[in-house]
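Worked problem 6 (solution included).
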Amino acid sequence: MTRRELLKEIACPDLVLRSPVNWTAVLFLAGLGGLHLAMCTQAFINGRWEAFLSLIFGVVFTLAAVACALIRSEVVVFKDDAQILLRTGLSRFHYQRAVPFEHVQSVRLTLLNQHNTHESRIELVCDGEVIECPPTVVPRQEALCLALLMEVRLVKVYGYDAPDVSDRLDKLTSA
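Solution. The predicted structure is:
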């Protein structure tokens, strides 16, 4: 019995990958909102009509910061249904679509730096699109798990400080 046949017989739970909060965008928008609200306060104290424009901008930027903090995207892999569910939104208010496993051609793992795993990316290469997975601290294991669950190829792309494969082949052939 091969490993893939054994994996088919084992009951695997669904894999859920959730994106973290984009704190850069949240803090930037909140800073812009706070700046406009501070300018609005000064303009109201001095009796200037520009205060209304700053009030509008401040409220819009503050609401955008709250939206960025609350909105999440997730990729859910259903092995039993043989499909991937892509969901973006806030709890009940979300947009979702399903991609069947037949449309997935491969799982692409990009490792730019060996020591910093936060620079890595996992992408699902589908027919006509590429789906980027949320960042992870264990990219190699997650990419392998996705490739095994969907029974597709795992493609690894290395960056500038990856180990040189030709040196390993030279050592193996010379021995």
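Discussion: DSSP finds five helices and eight strands in the chain.
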